[in-house]
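User: Structure please.
Assistant: Input sequence and predicted structure:
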Amino acid sequence: MTQSVDAQAALIGEMENLLDMAETLVEEKEERVTRSLLELPVWGSPRDLVAALANGGEDDDSD
């Protein structure tokens, strides 16, 4: 009986580790997506946004 309980406890521990790793991966992905959204030209000046749209998304800071 004790062996069964120990095996179940080990399995639960492994599942907790897998869930922690999955949570870390999701958090990292969320941070990358958030960062990429915050780097969009729409958050800059309207002039930069219009220039980016006019150039098809290419970076050109000439005014």
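The chain has a mean pLDDT of 87.
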